[in-house]
TrEMBL record:
Keywords: GTP-binding, Hydrolase, Membrane, Nucleotide-binding
Domain of life, per lineage: Bacteria
Origin organism lineage: Bacteria, Bacillati, Bacillota, Bacilli, Bacillales
Subcellular localization(s) per the UniProt record: Membrane
UniProt keyword ATP-binding, yes or no: no
One Gene Ontology CC term in the entry: membrane
Protein name: Dynamin family protein
Organism: Paenibacillus albiflavus
Principal location: membrane
Length: 1226
């Protein structure tokens, strides 16, 4: 129902208070305690004439800092770590602070005064403290102005959401504060849309614009992008302001305009407050209606379920029968009236005296005239006979006319009526119809003659009229009598039919009892709505004209409304980048050598020198036939070492600054950097190749099938099903932002980009495109291009890439492409190093946490610790203490995700890039990147290379030992050599038989046991996370979407929970494959060594190649947990309204109910996954056994043949000795 509005200034203050009081009493009567309390708050606000300006935004968007600057005092704790955990209000008044402490039950709060210096601890206590009220000498707020600081809207804590909601309904104006780098996040767009839908004056504040780099993106372009993003979602804020607290002199800083705006709004406070209270009351009214509907929903659903969807059809059937019964009751009377009308029509229109009959009548009447005679003689008898003859003729003529013109028509009419009625007594009515007949006699006709009349033409006419009228009267009467008989039959028939219909109606009514209950409930709803709207009234306040930002005078800091805080500015040398572990060991005074502005890598050159030496040794050994296997192995290891590349995968959220950090490492601005999501595909940066010179890029376009799959997936999330690209493009064109939920907005953006770029991209799909650097930048940064790209390889020369390092810039963990979990996992598994980049003042998102959890799962499966954690934009730190606090905070978060002893580096990518480009040693040093580069290059070129060098060195020594043996054998006597040859051949046969005899069944059983045990714990860990994932799926923020009903929201939350559980199992499954591979390598390695030892027990001087595990492909793991028995009815049965669900026991009961169904679904998926992994890895195991046993047999054969060749003196002693000497200097 739409609330009627009258565009007026609104109610008077007294009328408004009465309306609020009436609505509060109504809520009290309806036992809606939540709304009752909120109306009480509106009444109190109205009575106190308070004007509230609410500051909302993400954690660490800078709300508290901004409020502190407006107040000119550090009243609120501010930190890059999330601080405000409850509502804090700030008003003008005597200096002091009051907190409201919750009791243990959380039902009430106790007021307590506290010193201002203890305020910080209370502001961050979201559980024990309900709200905090601060008063201070703040004349710019006047007597009525109040500033509200709220918890971050991205919190998943129920108490935080409730606190934010309680602030919003009182807020008269909302300032929504956003980090410069996260403006276009889906949560920002969703929240802004909700505020506008509530009618709140909304101002967007883009904070921290000091992060902007004009050389990367013109600020005007950035502003246009922000405005366009909100416009695309149909959001029209009342203003957008760009501010920075860190750089007051920034050319685009509009902080002065913000202060002027606040002052102007406070001046308009009374008008804005009236409007806000009126809007809030109406919003609460709608919330009550929704809550009531949600309370009734389970009962309606139960009744609807009882009808099994047949209610509407059966109700229509009953209504039709009722219409038939009502019509049937009137049918006899209607039939009688209708037949009588038709009889009258037939009778009145019947021409029973046509002209011919009138002529005969006139001839007859002449015979009745006085003096009538026949013949000259005029005999009386002859005259009488003539009169009789004329009468008879008239009689015949008239009877014929009456029969044809009247009688037959009446009988036909009534027979048809009887026939149509289908009366059971129709045969009895037939004689009655036949009896509609008048026996006209000559005598009757003669009797109608008025002998006193003057006979002539006039009388003939009158006579005929008289006769006709008399006949018609008689026929009408007879017809009416039959009609009455028909009506009696119709009534009898109606009664019979009515009885049957009434029985059927009664039967339907019994079946429709549930449906009637629904109708009654809805009727009651409509009645209550009328009562509500009557209380609310039709006079609606109008939003006053808001200040025009374009013409607003900018307030300088020395104007008296506020005392500005000094801007925190320090030169922090980011020594925290030695990692926490190193800080603890070395202390903050640890010195760092400052190299030149470009990274020097002497270690890489040493690696290549060693590789060259190994290649030379391999070439020497290849000249000796018996050393060819060792030579091949050594050459292979040397070539890998010579051409070794180091894949460095960068992960992190979309605005963590991965691209900026990659630029800092490369030393040039290679990748485009934007505060908007850019990396939609995998970007690889590597050294130039022969056909790909510096600055060129190979762009691999998606295949049409892959693109269609992505498009179908995104459309399905928006509730649209298609199968072909042509259908998809039409569907995308019809999409509207209003149809899209907050979580689906990235998918909407992706689809719009596909539509925009389709015509250009279609011919290129499935191909490789060569691009220059300018084109590369467009492919990466423009979403209408990047959405079609599978991956890009940029060939770029830099100190790091030239040494073999390959950078891989991945889509954000929160990207829509994150569903391709296998791609990310393969980089985690196969990359030589993983760099996880997080932003200095951002809390980890849900997607970040899931990714870190996966890193924690697999960390111990790697031989080396290859993970590095970058805290980007560390130059935002206002002090070294704050910097180390942030690093400690990141460390504790990593520890919570299973990552112990992490290497954490706070770095300023911007300063690092600027320092390298400008050759500014001080800026480069302060950026914090140098310690990271030192440790990272040491890891890449020492730790990683050392393994390969040791392996090659072992092969070289194996070859040298073989030469030493052979040289020694050649110095033996002929007899000794002959015995030695026989012994070797005998031992070879025995050794071969011994290792061939080994059974593999026990190894197979061991792997099966390992997989079963690993998956058992997978289920345990997933179910351990169930409570966390349930709370995330069913959290208060999802119920803010006022465009959807509770059933739809519950269904969507359930679907998301299933998806998260499935995702968790997939990630666990992928991590499990690493553990299985490790177990297989351990088993095979043990068998390989055992075979070598067996051979050595027969051939004591045998040396075998070191074990190198094969790289196993990661199997595709797809998990889809299902619980078909969970219906919408079951879900909605636990939800009456948001208060009952979150604050009472609704959610906990649903959680317990769903846990059983989830557990059963997980078990089913684990059974399938176990069977799949056992089949795959048992096959791998069998193949590996054959491979590595073959390597030992091949090594044995070469060893024996080499020894025999030496013993038989088939090779020149001097030749071998010279080669041995040559190898000694390699």
């Amino acid at each position: 129902m739409t609330v009627p509005t009258i565009d007026q200034q609104g109610l008077s203050s007294e009328a408004m208070l009465k309306m609020l009081t009436d609505l509060k009493q109504y809520m009290q009567m309806q036992q809606d305690k939540t709304r009752e309390s909120q109306f009480e708050g509106l009444i109190r606000k109205r009575e106190q004439n308070r004007f509230y300006i609410s500051f909302c935004g993400h954690f660490s968007a800078g709300k508290s800092t901004l409020i502190n600057h407006l107040c000119g005092k550090s009243l609120l704790p501010s930190s890059p770590i999330p601080t405000s955990a409850n509502i804090v209000s700030i008003a003008n008044g005597p200096i002091g602070a009051v907190v409201y402490e919750r009791d243990e039950a959380g039902d009430s709060a106790t007021k307590k005064s506290i010193p201002l210096e203890e305020l910080a601890a209370y502001c961050v206590d979201g559980k024990g403290i309900e709200r905090v009220e601060i008063t201070h000498e703040l004349p710019f707020l006047g007597d009525d102005g109040v500033l509200l600081d709220t918890p971050g809207i991205d919190s998943t804590d129920d108490a935080h959401h409730m606190a934010t909601e309680s602030a919003l309904y009182l807020a008269d104006v909302v300032f929504y504060v956003m980090d410069y780098n996260h403006v276009q996040s889906e949560m920002n767009l969703s929240f802004a849309k909700q505020m506008k839908e509530r009618g709140k004056p909304l101002y967007l504040i883009v904070n921290m614009i000091d992060k902007h780099r004009e050389e990367e993106l013109p600020f005007s372009t950035y502003r246009e992008g922000v405005a366009s993003a909100f416009h695309a979602w149909g959001i029209k804020p009342d203003g957008i302001l760009y501010v920075t607290m860190k750089a007051p002199q920034h050319p685009h800083n509009e902080y002065g305009k913000l202060r002027a705006l606040v002052a102007q709004l406070i001046a308009q406070g009374a008008e804005l407050s009236s409007y806000s209270v009126d809007e809030a009351a109406r919003h609460l009214l709608e919330e009550h209606r929704e809550a009531r509907a949600q309370q009734l929903a389970p009962r309606i659903a139960e009744l609807d379920e009882a009808m099994r969807g047949e209610g509407a059809a059966l109700a229509e059937q009953r209504a039709e029968l009722q219409r038939i019964v009502a019509a049937a009751k009137e049918e006899p009377q209607r039939l009688q009236a209708a037949l009588r009308r038709e009889v009258i029509g037939i009778v009145d229109n019947a021409n029973v005296t046509p002209a011919a009959t009138r002529d005969v009548a006139q001839h007859y009447l002449q015979s009745r005239a006085p003096g009538f005679k026949v013949g000259f003689l005029a005999r009386a008898s002859k005259t009488a006979a003539e009169a009789t003859a004329r009468l008879d003729k008239l009689h015949v003529e008239l009877v014929s006319s009456v029969s044809t013109q009247l009688e037959r028509h009446l009988q036909s009419l009534l027979r048809e009526a009887v026939s149509k009625g289908g009366y059971s007594s129709a045969p009895l009515l037939s004689p009655e119809i036949d009896a509609i007949h008048l026996e006209l006699t000559p005598e009757w006709l003669a009797g109608q003659v008025n002998t006193a009349a003057v006979f002539g033409n006039e009388y003939t006419i009158n006579y005929m009229k008289q006769v006709a009228n008399e006949i018609k009267v008689i026929y009408r009467k007879k017809a009416y009598e039959v009609i009455d008989l028909i009506m009696d039959e119709a009534e009898k028939s109606m009664k019979q039919q009515e009885q049957a219909h009434l029985q059927e109606i009664a039967s339907l009514s019994e079946r429709l009892a549930a449906y009637d209950g629904i109708v009654q409930l809805k009727a009651q709803e409509a009645k209550e709505d009328q009562q509500l709207y009557a209380l609310c009234g039709s006079v609606r306040a109008r939003l006053p004209e808001l200040p025009d930002l374009a013409n607003l005078a900018v307030m300088s800091d020395n104007e008296p409304t506020t005392v500005p805080l000094p801007t925190a500015s320090i030169d922090v040398v980011l020594q925290a980048s030695h990692t926490i572990e190193h800080l603890d060991q070395q202390g903050s005074d640890a010195s760092i050598d400052v190299p030149s502005s470009q990274v020097k890598l002497p270690r890489a050159d040493e690696v290549k020198q060693r590789a060259a030496a190994f290649l030379s040794a391999a070439s020497t050994m290849e000249e000796i036939p018996a050393l060819k296997q060792i030579a091949r192995s050594l050459a292979d290891k040397a070539n890998r070492l010579m051409n070794q590349t180091y894949t460095i995968a960068l992960f992190g959220a979309f605005s963590a600054g991965k691209s900026s950090f990659a630029n800092a490492l490369i030393g040039e601005r290679v990748l485009p950097v934007s505060p908007n999501p850019t990396t939609a595909a995998i970007n690889r940066i590597m050294a130039p190749q022969p056909n790909w010179p510096h600055g060129t890029a190979k762009v691999t376009m998606k295949k049409q099938e892959a693109l269609l799959s992505d498009v179908i997936y995104s459309l399905e999330l928006l509730g649209v099903k298609v199968t072909q690209m042509s259908e998809a493009l039409q569907a995308i064109a019809r999409l509207s932002p209003d149809q899209v939920t907050a979580k689906a907005k990235p998918h909407y953006s992706f689809l719009r980009a596909v539509l925009k770029g389709w015509s250009d991209a279609e011919p290129l799909l499935g191909s490789e495109v060569r691009a220059n650097h300018e084109q590369f930048t467009a492919y990466v940064a423009e979403e209408s291009k990047s959405c079609f790209i599978e991956g890009i390889e940029l060939y770029y020369s830099s100190p790091l890439t030239d040494q073999g390092i390959v950078f891989v810039d991945t889509p954000g963990a929160d990207s829509i492409n994150a569903r391709h979990t296998g791609v990310a996992f393969n980089y985690i598994k196969n990359a030589d190093a993983i760099l996880f980049v997080t932003y200095y003042n951002h809390a980890f998102s849900h997607a970040d946490k899931e990714f870190l959890l996966q890193l924690g799962r697999v960390k111990d499966a790697f031989e080396l610790d290859k993970m590095f954690f970058i805290v980007n934009a560390a130059d935002l730190a206002s002090s070294e203490e704050e910097l180390n606090g942030v690093v400690k905070h990141v460390e504790s978060n990593l520890l919570a995700h299973g990552i112990r002893h992490p290497r954490i580096y706070p770095i300023s990518s911007q300063n690092a890039a600027d320092g390298k480009l400008k050759k500014d040693q001080a800026l480069l040093y302060s950026s914090g990147i140098l310690p990271f580069e030192q440790e990272f290059t040491s890891y890449a070129f020492q730790e990683l290379s050392q393994i390969a060098i040791q392996s090659a060195e072992a092969e070289l020594q194996r070859g040298i030992h073989a030469l030493d043996r052979w040289i020694k054998d050649m110095q033996s006597s002929d007899e000794e050599r002959s015995k030695r040859i026989s012994h070797l051949l005998d031992m070879q046969v025995k050794a071969m038989n011994a290792i061939e005899a080994g059974a593999t069944e026990e190894l197979q059983r061991e792997i099966r046991r390992e997989i079963s045990e690993l998956l058992y714990y997978v289920k345990q860990r997933t179910m351990y996370r169930y409570s966390e994932l349930f709370a995330y799926a069913f959290n208060p923020s999802v119920f803010r979407d006022e465009g959807r009903d509770s059933k739809t929201i519950m269904a969507a939350a359930w679907k998301e929970l299933l998806a998260m559980i499935s995702f968790d199992l997939e990630q666990e499954g992928l991590a499990t494959t690493l553990r299985i591979e490790k177990a297989i390598h351990s088993l095979i390695s043990a068998e390989y060594v055992k075979w070598g030892q067996i051979i050595q027990s027969f051939v004591e001087d045998y040396e075998y190649e070191g074990f190198e595990p094969s790289t196993l492909p990661t199997p595709a793991i797809r998990v889809e947990v299902e619980a078909p028995e969970v219906s919408i009815k079951l879900l909605s049965g636990f939800f009456k309204n948001a208060k009952q669900f979150f604050e009472s026991d609704g959610r906990s009961k649903l959680k317990n109910e769903l846990e059983r169904h989830i557990s059963e679904g997980v078990s089913r998926e684990m059974i399938k996954l176990e069977a799949k992994l056992i089949e795959i890895y048992c096959d791998y195991l069998e193949a590996a056994i054959q491979k590595y046993r073959g390597l030992q047999l091949e090594g044995l054969e070469e060893h024996i043949q080499g020894s025999i060749s030496a013993l038989e003196m088939k090779v020149d002693y001097e030749f071998l000795y010279a080669k041995r000497q040559s190898l000694a200097v390699k």
